[in-house]
Amino acid sequence: MIRLDNVSFAYQRGRNEIDGVTIDLPSHRRMAILGGPETGKTTLVGLLAGILDPTGGRIERRAHLSFPAGYNRAFRFASSVRQNIVFAARIYDADPGEVVDFICGILDLRDWIDRPMRDLPVRTRLSVAYALTYALPFDTYLFDNIIGPGDPATRDLWRQLYEARTATAGAVVATRQPRVAEAYCDCALVLRRDASPLFFENLRDAIALFEADAAAGQAASAVSQDHRAVEAPSLEEGRAGTQAMARIAE
Amino acid sequence: MTQTYPSGRIYAAGPRRLALRNQYNVLSALLFREAGMRHGQNFTLGYLASGIEPLVIVATIGLLFSALSRTPPYGSSLLLFIGTGVFPIYLFIHTSLRLRQPLNAVAQRQRFPIERPFDHILVHALLHLVSSAVVAIGFFASLYLFFGVNAAIPGDPVTAIAALLVVLMLGIATGILNSVIARIIPAWDLLWPAIARASLHFSGPYFVAAYLPPDSRWYFALNPVIHGVNWFRHAFYPFYPNQLTDYGYIVTFTVVLLFFGLLLEAGTRRFLEEKD
Asked: pTM for this one?
């Protein structure tokens, strides 16, 4: 269980992105965080992971939470890929040899594993970061929009990894696409602007509320020509290369 | 796909043991990584390399004093006297310089969430202590073995270790305070190394503080490092003049500095995160 106690967070003295949230979240289930643009999905994942510290309140984690999937800021570019993986495995209490074998098993790293991290192509580096997330043992895996990076060829791979890991562990997937939530999750937390978040045991109810909210929001923005609401989706499209994965071909 | 998924080893343990175990994992992994790195670049024995600087200073001052054919200010060996001053001073200087890194804004973003800044501070301090100790022991041992200076083996090793630990703590406290000041005033990163290295000459590497003229002596006594140097010398010279050795002063100074450093760090954390 993850207990949020009156948690707030604001960027740069702006408005509160997360405003006094008190809620208990399940840590061993597959939970979606559904929310429109600028409702604080990424912020909430960052807070849960501990890469952001709450401005107020506290978060009590009664489970071993991962870093956001694909977190690659901590890689040392001068060290080899293997050294980076071994370091991550050590601090997250996994067997370094097993983790390296696992990552080499799912990605073709023969030429790269002993080269410095900075020599890796960006895509490969991102793949290593995601593979590392799945390789490490956590109670709850945190995802921000993306289950796995990349091209259609590897789509099944990440999906398999996700299914295998969440068979025994929990997951939190932040997304604004109901289809992603349907494909990967069983319950959901709906984030809304200017209202407190609601947790739903039943995914259908959550999606119904989310879509009603989105429709209301669109109607409001069509009236007031709120350019921020129009701009926000195009910003998200900027990362489409990696986001494509999160959409599932039916 | 027939992969075996790496599994955790200890998640059945209680939360307190888990926290301890995590702490141990982070510290041990960091220790081995940071030992081979410097400024994020691979540099094996990078920490030992910083031991060259005190050796150069000892050699320079020793050469200068020999050229001027001055007698050692105290004891019979010039190199021993200078060495007992320069090594604790450089322990302070290098610690206060290097401990700015763990709290640096960029470095803080390039970490896994499980690594906290104070893990890095602890690891860097420990690496400094070990590398300084290795270089210092090498120096004093070679004085004893090759120069026949019998006094190079401290008569009171406990005093020597206590003095070095207090100087190390002073360096850590100064480093933490500096890291916060440097984030508020970036020019401090250029000023402090100059100030620290200049302070070498006021900390008594080549004079006996207690033999200074009584008028100026008390100004020198304001510098806490000079008390650390005297403390360290008591371990080597049993009859070293102790008029200017105030153990209470350096310990109090360290505690107060550490307190204010941590207070300033905690108080300005949010402000600085927003500033960067």
From this structure: 0.82
